[in-house]
Design a protein that fits this description.
Blueprint lengths: L7 E7 L4 H17 L3 E7 L9 H12 L4 H10 L6 H10 L4 H10 L3 H13 L7 E4 L4
Parallel strand pairs: 1-2
Antiparallel strand pairs: 1-3
Helix pairs in contact: 2-3
Length: about 140
């Protein structure tokens, strides 16, 4: 979110089922407001599947939404409704955002975005991420 050429880039490694990530959203929004168009915000998936069983499917749902230009809308809805995560809720959100529920089902069944989510996770591990949320500002943790 933000200008591609912004001088500041804030990257969050997060998990859609993590209550700390949901709480951090207010601080992220405040930083975005404070820095305006000199800040770009990037969210990377870091699902902690051993403690958050819906985190990976939520991340794949967000990536499906991204393929349809609706990532940030889905991102916010997933965080706003953490206690409702699951297939029937993803269907509801897809419908609300005007996306094809059957395509979402197929995407989740075939794990279409699993490799992308795993790549985000692996990149986080290589960068020293071991929990969520973890933030980097211009490559500095």
């Amino acid at each position: 979110m933000g200008r591609q050429d912004a001088p500041l880039t804030l990257v969050e490694y997060g998990d859609y089922e993590c209550p700390h990530c949901a709480s951090a959203r207010a601080a992220v929004k405040q930083v975005q407001e404070q820095f305006g168009d000199i800040l770009r915000f990037v969210f990377r998936n870091f699902p902690l599947t051993q403690i958050h069983p819906e985190a990976e499917s939520a991340a794949e749902t967000a990536e499906f939404a991204a393929s349809q230009g609706k990532f940030w809308q889905m991102h916010d809805l997933l965080f706003d409704n953490q206690k409702s995560l699951g297939q029937s809720f993803y269907d509801k959100l897809a419908s609300e955002l005007g996306m094809d529920q059957a395509a979402l089902h197929k995407t989740l069944l075939e794990k279409t975005y699993s490799e992308h989510v795993r790549a985000d996770f692996s990149g986080g591990v290589r960068s020293g991420v071991n929990g969520t949320p973890t933030f980097f500002m211009n490559d500095q943790r």
